[in-house]
Design brief:
The protein is of the alpha/beta class. The chain has one domain: Metallo-beta-lactamase, Chain A (4-Layer Sandwich), CATH 3.60.15.10. It is 25% helix and 21% strand. A 9-stranded mixed sheet has the order 6-5-4-3-2-1-16-15-14. Strand 14 and strand 15 form a beta hairpin. The longest helix has 24 residues. The N and C termini lie far apart (65 Å).
């Protein structure tokens, strides 16, 4: 009996430890990322495991990005602000800790003021109190944001600075025309020579210099890494990876400037070895100019496959999940839930290293997703 006593004590000690470990596994939280369809603009919500939130850009004002000028200027419509508000409710976000305005074009800054009237925002992050494009059709989003900015707590970061979202590592790699000049510490592949720079070409700046001011972000959670450079230009992308890759490799690449040919430099796209690329083009734009840009992006960067311009595998409606072309993440909640306000649907996808992302889209719409080892999602 005395010999068995130490064994019984050891077992008694192991049982509480095992229970604590099981509870910790059950309580493990994810980084949730919501890519919100703003008809070709951008709005991406990050909800950290700590519960803090960060919204990157705010989509179009009103009904811009719609099919016709009459629809775009229809009064009383707050389309993207409504969609963002619906997703905030779905994510149980009652206060936005950080709102990053990458730059002041309407498809990115269009609802900064509107959202400030709807939900408390603790911090704005932008490139500074100026806009370099002062044409009436360009400056309106900035002018609407300016009074809000003057009252708010605003952070103007420099490359290398961090946005202190609890539970995440969010580093700024571009801002106000400047880009990072030193490799990111502990980033996989950062600092390595980039052989693609040898034959790389530069491009002349196009007539939208506000893009040059874009805030670019590297968001890390564990080994999961996401790159979002806003609408940064081709030559600035080049500077981030040539002659050495300063930013490393990534799990997800949020394609720069919607796949526009003035961005998406192959020397960056290939150097970062992204496993998934996400391109934010809406249904209207996917059928118009940006659809052509998206196809051009795939062809120019060879992201469609090993052959230049090869097609990505497509899922067939009604095809069983196990027979679909499989990306490197899995659908963990195949059942769809309706958002009440505009009957939009969502699907949750399990990410890598505890990160999840949710593609928000209308019924029947196909998300444009490109990338090595990743096929297109089935119609949502």
């Amino acid at each position: 009996m005395r010999k068995m006593l130490p064994l019984l004590v050891a077992v008694a000690l192991l049982v509480p430890i095992s229970l604590v470990h099981a509870q910790q596994v059950q309580q493990q939280k994810h980084l949730d990322i919501y890519f919100i369809d703003t008809e070709g603009g951008q709005a991406t919500l990050f909800v950290s495991p700590s519960g803090q939130s960060m919204l990157v850009d705010t989509g179009f004002p009103g009904n811009q990005g719609a099919a016709t000028p009459a629809e775009a200027s229809a009064p009383g419509i707050t389309r993207d602000a409504d969609r963002i508000t619906a997703v905030l409710g779905q994510a149980n976000v009652t206060v936005l800790d950080y709102v990053v305005i990458t730059h002041y074009h309407g498809d990115h800054a269009g609802n900064a003021a509107e959202l400030a009237n709807r939900i408390p925002i603790r911090h704005f992050v932008d490139h500074g109190p100026y806009m370099v494009e002062l044409q009436p059709n360009r400056v309106a989003p900035y002018l609407s944001y300016q009074p809000v900015r003057e009252r708010a707590h605003t952070i103007v970061p420099k490359p290398g600075d961090k946005i202190p979202v609890a539970g995440l590592d969010v580093q700024v790699v571009s801002a106000a025309g400047d880009v990072l000049t030193k490799p990111i510490v502990d980033a996989p592949g950062a600092g390595a020579p980039n052989p693609l720079c040898r034959d790389a070409k530069l491009k002349e700046q196009d007539a939208t210099p506000e893009n040059f001011e874009s805030i670019g972000l590297v968001i890390r959670y564990g080994s999961f890494r996401l790159l979002d450079l806003g609408d940064l230009t081709w030559n600035q992308e080049h500077a981030l990876v040539c002659p050495n890759n300063l930013i490393g490799s990534f799990t997800v690449f949020h394609t720069t400037r919607h796949g526009d040919p003035h961005s998406g430099a192959p020397q960056l796209v290939h150097a970062i070895h992204a496993r998934v690329a996400l391109m934010n083009n809406g249904r209207i734009l996917a059928n118009r100019s940006r659809g052509a840009r998206a196809r051009g992006f795939l062809a120019n960067t060879s992201l469609g496959g090993r052959r230049r311009g090869a097609q990505l595998p497509r899922a067939v409606p009604g095809q069983h999940q196990r027979d679909r072309p499989r990306p490197r993440y899995q659908d963990v909640r195949p059942a769809r839930r309706q958002l009440r306000d505009d009957k939009r649907t969502h699907r949750v996808h399990e990410g890598i290293s505890g990160a999840r992302w949710r593609s928000i889209s209308k019924p029947g719409r196909r998300r444009q997703i490109a990338g090595r080892e990743c096929g297109l999602l089935p119609p949502l």
